[in-house]
Amino acid sequence: MRHITRGLVTAGAVLSSLLAIPGTAQAAAPVVKEATSDSADWSVIDVRLNHGSAVGEDVKKITAKLRPLGSAETDPPVATITDFTQTYWASSWEGVWSSPPVHLDTLGEYTIDVEATTSGGESTVQQNAGVLRYEKQPVIADFSVTPTEPTIDDKLVTATGDLLLRDPGTRSTTPMPGASVDIDLGGSVEETVTTDDQGHFSLAREVSQGGWARAEYRSDLGYATVPWVDIKPKAAPTRLILDKKNFHVVANAEMKVTGRLEYRSGTEWKPLAGIPLELDYKDSHITDATEATTDAAGRFAFVRRVYGDTKFEVAFPPYPYNPWIQRTATADVTAEVTSTSRFTEFTAAQNEHAQLDITGSVDLSGNYHSGRIKVGIQYSADGRTGWKTKKTVTTGFGSQFIVEGLKGNPDGYWRLRYAGDTKRDIKGTTSKAMRKVKALTRIKGAGASPEPVRVGRTLTVKGVLQEAKPASTTGWTSWKAYGGKRVQILFRPRGEKTWYLMDTVKTKANGSFAKGIKAPMDGTWVPVHLEPDSKHFAGAGAEDYVDAR
């Protein structure tokens, strides 16, 4: 027993306590937390202790004394039990100690008084620590579940057992007929059955999943249960069979992946219906799954757009979980893409001299290509046949190109064409044709008179300004007068190359004009229509050399 010495507390003692190793348990008397009948066998005493011992100490002895419930603490016990074994470890200093079945002469309830002693000599006596229920106890015997590994072909599980009433003294049992027993088969089946005349019960049901199977009985007589039995479905091997695994499609086109899902049943393979599958990128951190569910024949179909060369994988999605099959089967799909091109820009502006300024841009859909490409600028008189390349431009995908001052035609159709690249699997493209045309102008009967002429004398430059408008497709209307427009009179002195503007005259309604100008010297005269509107080309008359004396 503990021996306590009373005396003066010294400073050394205080210092020693401050320097004690942290976490070291100090010797203490055990604490009886509870004493009760064991739930599985009411004739067994369970004592829960927190012994709080120093390191290395343990519970050395437990003594339980039984007296009828309601008796005085001083009444003598009807039984004393000292044989206890630890049956549960809550921690290194707490646990449960259990006795063998107790044999008493009379059924009933008994108060439990407990004395517990540690190996360090610390002892505790706990009166009224709990109650022993020494009565006939309902128990479930011979509980079994078959099979514990159901299969996808046979999901039927049968649970059986016997509900009995056990005498704690004789350990004999009698059947409990007409009693209700609750049966749980892995959480997918929960039903109540009734025992027969022999106390036997049985339940056979198909389960939808695995889990713990158990049987329970509850009534005024008490509660009975069984150790849980684990139902583990045996997952069947699976396989994915594709109708086609290699595809070659145009960029942005749809690819249809079809096949069937099967599971192995014995030595044969059978279709799997109603199973979710997904088609997603293979070995990629990017997820963009296309989903499908197998039909009654195990068939599935995925329809997916493909934008570039890609490796896909048909597999099971993470959810929902299916315990009946192995969800490890996969099937690879390879998609190769023919890239497509298209012109996203094409403009053509034509000036008064039929010269063209052209801009354009071609984009690529599909596999990335950073190289240079060649684009042809083509012309056709009727927009249907006879296309000829007038100029070839080197550019890149997604880059704008500009061509200025390209020699054109008064009327015709223009387009852009990229031939493609068979080596890089790029499909070519052609822009829409664009007609560029304006009305023609000319000066008919142009001339300067008189000739010769004296220097400083007046000469007259005259002519008729006419226009010819384009037809709706190709060709021109007849020449007609073009009145109310300005005509410029140009002069080039003999021996020079430069033209000089001498005067401007406005045409009459019939297109005619005449302008008198003093002759400066020998040279060439010509009337021109240099500043047409946006719907006409510039026009000119014949040059006329005049000798000035």
UniProtKB/TrEMBL annotation:
Keyword field contains Signal: yes
Signal peptide: 1-27
Top-level lineage group: Bacteria
Keyword terms of this UniProt record: Signal
UniProt protein name: Carboxypeptidase regulatory-like domain-containing protein
